[in-house]
Design brief:
Number of domains: 2
CATH topology of the largest domain: Ribosomal Protein S5, domain 2
Oligomer: single chain
CATH architecture of the largest domain: 2-Layer Sandwich
Distance between the termini: 5 Å
Number of strands: 12
Bound molecules: cytidine-5'-monophosphate
Strand content: 25-35%
Length: 302
């Protein structure tokens, strides 16, 4: 069973208060992009995983800490399936890059095992399992363009027209998502007299939704926002120069993707993205073109 699931970029990410479970309330707009994870699931007695791909996969756990293995085990436990599975993951989404690669693996494993084992869960049941595996996993199941609230796992559709062309610049070393949230908390504590506290909960700015509905990359570029960017840049100050390089090379705007350190550059069209990627590559950066929105985790061949 071959399943493909997309990486994502957060077009907008407002981080609110810390919730009782330690997570942050947030409002985000996700877009699934054409950098994808491929998973092949084959019947096996136990649970195992192998990982390969064009990105550095050395940091990916090959045991029960692997999120795809946890997804398969959770589905087996939920449905009473007694067998196991071998998962072969081909990664194109950078590891610990802020593009939801691990979440895409988990979503792909759920869809692959559900099909392989004939467990036939409804999409609501798959969504509930996905939310237990991580805040971004439900979006990797659903794909397209969506607004996420709660911990990012309560999804509603966002209408989007046309396609959006991106260049992603990957970094050689990943950033830990909990560390980036922790750095944001410390930054806000240090600057609490300068930062106006928002009385209302976080919400996605209407400008983002208008730009998506209009299919207007320039308007979307003007509306991009990521509250985690300040924290990711504090941990990795070198990224600020790369953001400037991408914008100088002709991108409409650059932003840290999720918790970073991958940088996402929105471009006017496919040709502009190819130019920006070419000039960033000539400067020695690892640049990849991609487009959104693409579908969520889906069976490629049975
Ligand atoms: O859900 P996931 O495992 O992807 O989240 C990774 C980490 O990111 C969490 O352990 C938490 O530290 C942080 N996080 C958060 N608030 C969210 C989502 C993630 O604090 N809404």
């Amino acid at each position: 069973m071959h399943v493909r699931a997309p990486g994502k970029v957060n077009l907008f990410l407002e981080v609110g208060r810390v919730l009782p479970d330690g997570y942050h309330a947030l409002a985000t707009a996700f877009q699934a992009v054409s950098l994808c994870e491929d998973i092949w699931a084959t019947p096996a007695e136990g649970f195992s995983v192998s990982v390969r791909g064009p990105v550095d996969v050395s940091g990916v756990p090959r045991d029960d800490r692997n999120l795809a293995v946890r997804a398969a085990r959770l589905l087996a436990a939920k449905t009473g399936y007694a067998g196991g599975v071998h998962l072969e993951i081909h990664k194109a989404v950078p590891v610990a890059g802020g593009m939801g690669g691990g979440s895409a693996d988990a979503a792909a494993a759920l869809v692959a095992c559900d099909a392989l084992w004939d467990t036939h869960l409804t999409s609501a049941q798959l969504h509930a399992l996905a939310a237990r595996l991580g805040a971004d996993v439900p979006f990797a199941l659903r794909g397209g363009t969506a607004v996420g609230t709660g911990r990012g796992d309560e999804l509603s559709s966002a209408l989007a027209r046309g396609r959006f062309d991106w260049v992603f610049v990957t970094a050689s070393e990943g950033l830990s998502t909990p560390e980036v949230y922790g750095a944001l908390d410390r930054h806000r504590e240090r600057h609490r007299f300068d930062i106006e506290p928002s009385a209302a909960g976080p919400r996605v700015e209407p400008d983002v939704l208008h730009a998506l509905r209009a299919g207007d990359p320039a308007a979307l570029a003007a509306a991009l926002r990521n509250d985690l960017q300040v924290a990711a840049l504090a941990l990795r100050p070198d990224l600020a120069d790369v953001l400037v390089s991408g914008e100088r090379a002709g991108a409409l705007a650059g932003i840290v993707s999720g918790s970073g350190p991958t940088l996402a550059f929105l471009c006017a069209d496919e040709a502009a993205a190819a130019d920006v990627a070419g000039s960033l590559a000539a400067d020695g950066f690892d640049a990849h073109v991609a487009y959104g929105a693409v579908p969520g985790a889906r069976v490629v061949t049975g």
